[in-house]
Amino acid sequence: MIFEKMEQYDYEQLIFCHDETSGLKAIICIHDTTLGPALGGCRMWKYDTEEEAIEDVLRLAKGMTYKNAAAGLNLGGGKTVVIGDAEKDKSEAFFRALGRYVNSLGGRYITAEDVGTTVNDMDTIYQETPYVCGISESYGSGGNPSPMTAYGVYMAMKRTAKEAFGDDSLEGRTIAVQGVGNVSYNLCRHLHEEGAKLIVTDINDDSVERAVNDFGAEAVGIEDIYSVEADIFAPCALGGILNDETIPELKVKAVCGSANNQLLDSDKHGSQLEERGIVYAPDYVVNCGGVINVADELQGYDAERAKSKVKEIYNQMDKIFSIAKRDGVTPTVAADRLAEERIDSMMRVRSTFSLNEVTTLNRR
Ligand code: NAD
To answer: What are the residue boundaries of the Glutamate/phenylalanine/leucine/valine/L-tryptophan dehydrogenase C-terminal domain, all occurrences included (predicted)?
Structure first.
């Protein structure tokens, strides 16, 4: 049953990690390493069953292959899920045991923070392996990735505006923002600096107040954000919010935001947006500034270099809209094709014979 699942999307490796002393139960999945070592975060979650954990790690690792490829990174896709309660089950031994498993893969997989894990946990893993990102700034990391994610969303939004309005300037445009948290506050700052008008909502009143005071944003109710008169809608809070109920309400010409998995059903709702003449910027490309920032640590973090790579999201969006036109598909499908075409072409490039890859020829 597991090999059947692995065959379906050509997974490379699934590793089950167990440590009795610390209670560690983790699964590492390496989906594809054509472009380079598999990079993807470590999620700690109270999975009800092992099957659920396996499904999740397979799905998330494949998602990272596409994200890293479409981001233009020389990295493959992988992920770890840890079965446990992030509030109760953590200990030094727990993450050091996981670090040793990651290390045993010799760099085929690089881990990082995700839901349920923190910078502290990554620092503990770092005691056992260099194959970890998102560690403390004192160890030379880039720190909180949210400002870089926001800059990437801003770049993607400019290119999306060009697609929708023929001009990438956001000056005088009205942007409806759902959720003004870590990423989105920084996004609002870029938009405000360029002269955009902001309409915001958040379940947290203090966050709304901050956006109103700092950027002159107009505040609206939680449910009203879908139907406001605006040019662009930026979902920056939750997944699944583009669905049968909300899409008919939208009055915007484009959607571009940081939230993961915005389309409840990516085919159906991607097409619904297209039918309504709304340009959709695929979320996993829009929000890849964070992973670009964290991956820069692998070369010794340099903020300027990371920022210039994040700026490239504008050009990646350009390619996505070109593929969408070339193939007559939605931008979501086009983003997947961009990733697949890049992986295919690198596979061909790398098929050239290289002596040092064939160790058996060196034997006596
Ligand atoms: P965050 O928790 O700081 O911000 C989310 C905000 O949304 C919060 O202020 C929260 O109160 C608000 N919110 C929650 N439910 C809401 C609702 N129903 N209506 C309106 N507002 C609501 O999180 P973040 O780090 O800014 O991330 C935002 C989104 O971007 C998430 O979906 C996250 O997965 C995604 N993302 C973040 C990063 C990153 O670097 N932080 C990278 C990639 C993707």
So the answer is: 143-351
